[in-house]
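Before relying on records like the one below, remember that each one covers exactly one chain. Contacts with other chains, cofactors or solvent are not represented anywhere in the record.
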Amino acid sequence: MADEPALGGTTPLQPPETERSSVDVPVVLVHGFASSFERNWREPGWVDLLQDEGRSVIGVDLLGHGRAAKPSEPAAYSALEESIVAALPAAGPVDAVGFSMGAQLLLRAASAAPGRFRRIVLGGVGDNVFASTDPEPVARAVETGQAAEEVGPSAAALAHFAMAPGNDRAALAACLRRPRAPLTEAEVAAVRAPVLVVLGERDFARPADRLLAALPDARLVSLSGTDHFGTPKDFRFVQAALDFVRT
């Protein structure tokens, strides 16, 4: 489970429990905060590449995002991972790729229903999945469109993304303020599927040592020179994910 300095590596993974061909397994794509299925996955070309390989794609718009409902009460977002569970087919395993908030929610869904996931790719998350942070400074930045200097550049970036066409800033702020607890090592250890974690070397979510140690079957791919927000469009992330779910 050691960090790899660049894309690639030969760390062996446990074979999947099913002999079903990967082409027959749909791929669920879960976007990050203030994004959508269209913006996070279709526009950068993920959907076309997966479909070119014969894979069916299940696109998820999380509550408060994209074409989903946009309530303005934080309590409405208390079980945000249910957006993923609701999108799963009635039966059979899926492969899944999530970025940032979507990756954290994928971990929650796969912990609760480990038998539904064959392979999982997590982009833009590390040991921050175990952290408890105050959402209020970022929520205020999202609401106002301006981040206080002391909050840091990531809050300013999220405030900027929240102003994209189609976003509802009140709904996004409510999403940030939702009742939630950080993941625990026990919850992460319940994930049975092999997991690929992809992190830019300049991503604020680093390191990922605790996450990799907690997951029963995982490896890390590092993207040199890439930060958090550049990860979804980095073709090294795309290629690593495609190779992983193709196995």
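The longest strand covers residues 117-123.
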